[in-house]
Amino acid sequence: MRSSLRHPSWFRFRGARYRRNVAGCGLTTFPRQDRAFAATLPCLFPAGFESEPACSVGSGPSGSEAPYTLPPWLRGRPGRNDRAVHLRAEDGPAAVVLEPGLVVLRQALSREEQVALAAEAWDFGARTVGPSDPSGHGFFEEDGGLRGPMGSRGRIFEACCKLPSRLSESLLKASASWVRCARAADATMPQHEASHLLLLYYRLGGTLGFHRDEQANDGTGAEPVVNLSLGAEIDFALRHEHSDVARVVTLRSGDVLLFGGPCRRLLHAVAATRAVPDTVLPADAGDGRLSFTLRHAPEVTGHEYLYADFRPQPEDPKRKLTGDELLLGSDEAQRRLRKMSS
Ligand SMILES: O=C(O)CCC(=O)C(=O)O
Ligand SMILES: [Fe+2]
C-alpha cells in the first residue's frame, strides 16, 4: 500500500465528498456537463492506495484508458457513437470508483465462495421450463435452447424471499456488504435493500446490447443495480447517452459492478465474453457465465410472473405485452419509457 500522505484523502465534487483516488477517470468518464469542471481538478488522478478495515478502497494504475473496438453488432447504428475506451483498473481487493454512482469491487468473493454460489445457482436454474414445471424457474426450453430473447441467455427473475434460502441468504448478506463497501468509497451511491434477483446464464459468446434498466422489475428508484459475474470474463460497456464514447471495463469472475444514484440509468451492454482457464462454474455450465443482479424493485412484489419472460423487442414479430404493460397498463408503461429515455 502506498501512502497518500502527499494528497488529502478526500475531495469535493458537485457538493459531494469523494475519496480522491478515483480510478479510471479520464475526463471522458465524467458526464459531459461535468467535464469542464472535472478538468480543473488535477487532483483526481493520483496513483495512490489507502486501506480501510472493512473494505479496501483503491484505484487503478492512474486512470489509464486505451482505445477499444466495439464488436460490429454494437456499431453502425444511426445516432450512436461507435467509439469506445477500455478503462484499466488494477486487480486487488479494492473498490474502484469509475464515476460517482459507478463502482467496481474487484474479487468481491473468494474462489471458494464463487464455486459454492455457482453450484447453488446452477442447481436452482439449470432446469427446463415446460408444462411439467410451471414454476418459470429454469434457464432452458424443452428443446435445450436458452429461454431468454432469441435463445441468448437463460433468465430467472424472482423475489429474493422466494429463492431457495441457501441462495438468498448468502446473496443478500454479500450484497449488503458490497453496497456498504461501495458507499464507503462513493458518497453518492444510495443505500440499497435487495428485493429481487435477476439470474442469467450465458453460454460462451453470449452478449447483450445497450439498454437501460428501466422497467418496474429493474427498480425505478436511485438504488443501485448490484451485479456479480461468475465464470467467463466479459467486457462491459457503459455510457450515459448513445452519442457518448462508450467506456468498457473488464469484469472477471468474482467482480461486482454497482451503478446507482447519478449512474442508475446508464446504458450498458455485454460487448464480449472470454472463456477462463479454470472456471468456477460446474462442469455442465461449460465456459459460460452466471450473472446475478440484485435490485430494489418492491413495486413488482407479487407480480414477478409478469416478468418471467424478457421484454420482447419492438421488431420482434411475436411481440407480447411487456411486464410493465401488464402491470401498469400501456399508457403508464409508455409514459415511463418516454420519461426514462428522454
Ligand atoms: O449480463 C449481465 O450481467 C448484464 C445483465 C443486464 O444488464 C440486464 O439483464 O439488464
Ligand atoms: Fe441491464
TrEMBL record:
Query: Which UniProt keyword terms apply here?
Result: Dioxygenase, Iron, Metal-binding, Oxidoreductase
Database matches in SUPFAM superfamilies: Clavaminate synthase-like (SSF51197)
Needs which cofactor?
Fe(2+)
One Gene Ontology term of the biological-process aspect is: oxidative RNA demethylation
- A Pfam family in this protein? 2OG-FeII_Oxy_2
According to its record, what are the GO cellular component terms? cytoplasm
Q: What is this protein called?
A: Fe2OG dioxygenase domain-containing protein
* Species in which this protein is naturally found: Polarella glacialis (Dinoflagellate)
